[in-house]
Amino acid sequence: MLDILLENSTTLLIFLATILLVWYVITLPSMRNMPPGPFPLPVLGNFLMLRMPGANFVDVLGSLKKKYGKIFTFKIGSKPLIYINDLKLLQEAFVKRGDVMSSRPRNFHILSKIEEKAGVGVSLSNGLPWKELRRVSLTAMRDFGVGKKSLEEKVLEEVNAVLDIIGQQDGQPVVMKPWLMKATSNVISSVMFGSRFDFDDPKFNLLLQRINEATKVNFLFLPANFFPLVRYFSKSDSEIIRTLEITSAYIKELVADHHDTFDPDNIRDFVDLVLKMRNTPTGRNFNGEEIHASKFFLPCLFFSTSSLLLLVIPAFGSHSEVDLPPLSKS
Questions:
Q1: Are residues 75 and 129 in the same domain?
Q2: CATH classification of the domain holding 225
Q3: Domain final residue, candidates 104, 131, 158
Q4: Are 123 and 108 in contact (CB under 8 A)?
């Protein structure tokens, strides 16, 4: 019995060694053309480096930069990821050579799911459609208040709403995150849809709750993006998709109302601008998905803006001795 087990174990080891050798021979030529980096394991790549006890993603990348330089390869599963850790190199890659380097990835599982549910929009599109949609987005931001007093008034309205909430607490500590998220969401919504939402609106609160839960996950580094088998067991991507579905229903109501009340001579917000662009020669790349793609774009924008404020406010509060220059009234 023992002889049989030893013989089978030897056979298994030989088989695994052969698989490793074949894998190494197949992947070696492609790795020769890549920047240096840690040697990847079969199937896993360098994924285990992120799962070591006490491992921090930023610290791992920092140590790799010290060892391999400003550009290195880090492989997760079978996907090689190239990291650029230098401002000048980033500028050269994505500004000077942006036509070659700045395309969005199409081989991430979760991004494919997002595109399927939400369309591409400015966040995920490439090439000419991206340029035209970006141009329209920048035009919309200028036309609807960015850098103007009209937007300042919208911001002040939300600031006063948050201050009212704080004043109702009678000096007790306040968790600022939900209120900042509501305030920033309303400013963005006023540009996108021409309206704000009441802080007590149940649909609005459900949407923000789902966004908060979904954005706890770094969706680009979900294991499902790199290991196909994990996709059948992962719950993280389903959280993101569910958030998109809730956002979609909310946005469809707003867009339907814009369709019913659209006046090409009275452009009220970003949605109206896209509707108008669809009827012009320069709007040939606008098919309506751009509006609905905001169901992906908006959660990211809501979360990132409020998160920035959560960092800025404590910093200002901790350095109250610093005198800021007065704001210009012009």
A1: no
A2: 1.10.630.10
A3: 104
A4: no
Residue 254's domain comprises 113-318
Tokens 């290991």 sit on residue: 227
Residue 198, C-beta contacts closer than 8 angstroms, at least 6 positions apart: 204
Tell me 225's DSSP state.
Answer: G
Position of tokens 């979760």?
110
Phi, psi of 45 (to 5 degrees): 65, -130
In three-state secondary structure terms, 256 is helix
Tokens of 106: 């199409």
Q: Which of 278, 279, 299 is nearest to 289 (CA)?
A: 278
How many percent of the chain have pLDDT more than 90?
3
Q: Under a CB-based contact definition with an 8 Å cutoff, are residues 248 and 117 in contact?
A: yes
Q: Measure the CA–CA gap between 217 and 236, rounded to whole angstroms.
A: 7
Q: What is the dihedral of CA 114, 119, 123, 128, to 10 degrees?
A: 140
pTM: predicted TM-score of the whole model, two decimal places: 0.61
Question: pLDDT of 199-232, one tens digit each?
Answer: 888 888 887 877 777 666 655 666 666 766 666 6
For 224, counting Cβ atoms within 10 Å of its Cβ (0-12 exposed, 13-18 middle, 19+ buried), the class is buried
| Rounded CA separation 123/115 (Å) | 10
Q: What is the pLDDT of residues 56-69, one digit of tens each?
A: 778 888 899 999 99
